[in-house]
Queue: 4 jobs
Job 1
Amino acid sequence: MRIARVAVIMTIVIAAAQPAFAQQTLNFSLGYFTVRGEDARAEGDILNRTRADGRFALDFDVADFNSISVGGEWLVPLGNYLEAGAGLSFSRRTVPSVYEQLVDTDGSEIEQDLRLRLMPIAFTIRVLPLGQSTGVQPYFGAGLGVINWRYSESGDFVDPRTLEVFRDQFATSGNQTGPVALGGIRFAGDTVSAGFEIRYQSAVADLTERFAGFDNAKLDLGGWTYSFTTGIRFGR
């Protein structure tokens, strides 16, 4: 309900601002999302705990979850120096892993696939120091992100009590809010625009009480997105 109220309020604000200035922009982005590194992740993060689980640790790098990100955003001027935005992006990455210290009875690796999917909805306000009437438009801003996420581990696992190998899947998902900060530059014409943007999101999700053998695990959803943008400009 909280997420729905935020979305409705921001949509009303953006819609009400439509006549405020010249052109709106429908922006599309293609970029690269980098998760927070091992040393910067939240305490109790499932990726760090999985990699540091002693004899049952899995062999992968946190950076393996970096992925391509695609998105779209509706930008509406709020006067000459401010702009409101509402957008959605998507990234997904499947990371293969094996147990570092254990193998199956036939000597083969015990393999799993770890998958992280993120679908952030962001409501932002941008400041354009040079205004919107120039062709070169640097900007910076901040806002609120609502991140729809899903994390899963599937494949072969080792029972810590019996050391028996079994096949299973563990999956959990949810929505988590957190702050968003961004900055970039846009080269704007009358009908199209292009540019580059850096965006940071921060949020930490609580997993189910016991996930894949871990109690009270968390999932750090934070990271940086580096994107090329292109836009279609319309309106008066």
Note: The helical segments are 2-16, 46-51.
Job 2
Amino acid sequence: MRSFGTFAAEALSDYKTTAAVAPSSPYLAHAMLEPLRLSEGSTVVEFGPGTGVITRALLDLLPRDSTLLAFEINRRFYRYLRRSISDPRLVLLKKSAANVGRELHRLGHKRVDAVVSSLGLGLMSDRERRSLLGALLPFMDEESVFTQYQYFHGMEIKDGKLRRFSVGSLLRQYFDSVERKMVWRNLPPAFVFACRK
């Protein structure tokens, strides 16, 4: 319950970096991880772990000798995760997801098996979204899976105005296969996209 309080406090003070009103439900976490095929020595990237609902579920799935690189720019969430998860497979980075290419190179990873993203893509600029996906793709191959969720109302801010945003249309520009699943048991309900090259 403490993670909900931490999340709620941060959502009220900084919605742009949380991009959510509540932590992900276990049902959303399951839908995000179900498409992943993980084996010994896997390298997984998580964008925006928040209070770690999906992170913990990932660590339950992740084989020994695997690595989870989690990018979290929110100071409160980063501190909370440092205190509450002490798994040696977790490499917690207080860096923007935009640094993914640089950090993968720095840490010696040539490819990733999976990327799990909780980023509010609608709150990012089009340039930021394209830069992020462009930096990530060289580390993915036909066996890699990228999952992303979007709340069912799917909004973005463009030129100071709120309008509908389809993350599926964006993802189809980068991935050959994009499958969508609805998760009703989440606050709010969300679409989960599973993408492959």
Note: The beta strands are 43-47, 67-71, 90-93, 114-117, 145-151, 155-158, 161-164, 177-183, 190-196.
Job 3
Amino acid sequence: MAGTALVAATYGLVRLAYGLFLPDVQDELGLGVAAAGAISGGASVVYCAGALLGFFAAARHARLLVVGAALTAAIGAFGMAAAPSGEVFGAFAIAGSAGAGLASPALVAVLQRNPSTRRSPRAQTIVNAGTGPGLVITGLLALLLLPNWRLAWVIAAVFTLVVAGILIVADRPDSAAPPARQSLPPRSWFAAHRRVLAAALLLGCGSAAVWNYGRTLLVQSGAGATVSVAAWVSLGAGSTAVIVTARWMGDRGPRAGWAITAGTVAVASAALVAVPNSALLALIACAAFGWGYTAATGALIAWTADIDPARAPSGTALLFITTTLGQAMGAGAVGALIPVVGYPIAFLGAALVSAAATVPAVRTNRAVRQPAGSCAR
């Protein structure tokens, strides 16, 4: 529960809340469109830097990374709440994104070293699904507090620190567990991840349309502010539903699960184009997208753990970095296409890319060969 809450905080309440509160921030601080885009790009870079640190350090320093994730996210949120100018707000928004990058590999390592969760893929899926409750809470805060966005960031910061403290207290590493593996995996490990890396990159590219321009599409189609915020809540509700389907998805296996979830992202992205004038159908499409994307990231964790269980934290960091890089690429491509071909064609193109992400799951990678005497299975 604490791990799920930390993901909800670092992802849903801090990193992904930026886009939801941005219009009100722009009105008060005079933040321009170009500056807002630069902040988003900088946040992605810092997120990747945090995940890269987790790639090397999570197996040996999981608790320290949890502390780092909480502090960077909370300081970023407090800084945004107190920001007197757009420049200061942007600096803290960028810094706060490191919390999410640090949290994911750290939590994989924490769950793997605790006896009660080590052999439970469902535990990983549930914790990773914390993004959903975070998005729901953020949307509800927006409905209740806006235009007072500063108070929303204060609440996010306090919540992050509290749940991180609970997680640290609850962490009970198994003293009999095998020692952590070396920081840098061998070349065979990277080779075994070829297909899953390609899948993560494609899904990142394809999902960028909804993450970055989904709310704009709804507004341009005539949906009011309340409906567009409700769509955000619906997206979070869909992500939260991953907790309910965790056992069923675990029974499917990582590759079949990936094909199902990436396919759902593709269908939902296309459906959002077809139903923007119907509030109910748009909310259903957003919920399906939220479930598909969040469940897909859980499938990535299961996939890399299936290849090499002992290096699952490193694999998670690498795959999440790849997904984020794909989102940055996709956001740029969709942003360039929209003025030329319009929202519907750009979103349908993104849906095709998400559909292509299912292809690498067709063939099964062989697990990394372990040297004699290795404790990894």
Note: The chain has two domains: 1-170, 184-361.
Job 4
Amino acid sequence: MTLRQAGAGVLGLALLAAAGCKVGPNYHAPAMPAPPTYSDNGHNGNWAAAQPADAKDRGAWWQIYGDTELNDLEQRCANANQNIAAALHVYEQAHAIVRENRASLYPEVSIGADVSRNRTSANKPLRVGGAASYWDFLIPLDISWEPDLWGGVRRQIESSAASAQASAADLAGTRLSLQGLLAVTYLQLRGLDLQAQLLRSTIDAYAQAVQLTQTRFVGGLATQSDVAQAQAQLEATRAELIDLSVQRQQFEHAIAVLTGVAATGFTIPQKPLGDNPPSIPTGVPSELLERRPDIAAAERRVAAANAQIGVAQAAFYPQVSLGATGAVESSAISTLFNSSSAEWSGGPSASQILFDAGRRRARVDVAVAQREQATALYRQQVLSAFRDVEDQLSALRVLEQEADVQGRAVNAAQQSLNLALIRYKGGIATYLEVLTNQTILLNDQRAAAALVARRIVASAQLQIALGGGWNASQLPAN
């Protein structure tokens, strides 16, 4: 074979590889029908009302709460949270694997150098003359290439690229989960601040009640028992206020970890929650398939598993490789680069497995089963996502109704207490009646305050269930 013939053969194999088929099934996303609307989306509620700004970028979805402290904490979480950093490095690994697999499409070229001092035996068979010593200077150049005739390498690249996209979606999912957890924890902390505000105002009212009973006791209109009961209720309420600080500090510590700082010395100023959650448009269920990063990650893993079937099927076809070796070799370094010191060899080789006791077929069956497993997990993820949204929509609807009823209970309790105080001051009721009504009012007020926090937390959880501001279009290119 001449050098020209070898070059023509290499070019022919390269063209064949470039135009070669890819064995294995082409990917089609699994079908997953979505309901036309959410069950609770048609109910009257401020969570479903569309707003004029719906079209704007909602990546920073927490900004809808208008809290600068929360906005700052979320930014710190994105920049410093170590779980997000770990997920980023997982994606970087997956991206590097794509580059590694893509390199298999190209020849591998290596060069070396070897210098040795040799001596041949005088008694070596067929040796003429005595022993001889000589230098051997060698610079070899090796080229090897296995053309991707059947698409196995391209299927492997396809699989690793889909896996990298899944890792990118995992990164988005980790960021959404942790920033969502931060928002929920922060809003719960603000809910405790609302409870604390209520308890402080109640303590002021109870302190006035203690003063009232003491004045009436001095005037002979109340008993020592009335004073003791009023004082006991005041101190019990002060204890409840102190007890709130335990849970609040735990929330602060959790937020510190989420933002990547030590909990020691980390504090958040007190600020009570507002009254109602903001309006959150949900869109239609079919959009959820694009907006949830966990769904995108599951779908990309189906694509990766599907490509692995082609990788397994490519093993049924002959392996063709092309190799070439060239070198310059001389016994003297002064003549090493002379044309007469050149040597080379090259040519194609092929091999075909004739019998493997079903090993390759088993690998294809494994790949098919893995794709079906990934498909089932994808569909389950979609169903779970629909459930998450429905859970939060139901929670918002029910909690809104409960808040209305609880508000009427607070108003009734306040009216009952006012009447009890009038009766007590008029001497026609005991202080026990006042005490009972005070307890009922405080319990109802705390329940109403808790509902405020639960509704706003549910609104944040709804945004998390909807995927935050993420969209599958943010995935890196294949």
Note: The first strand starts at residue 108 and ends at 111.
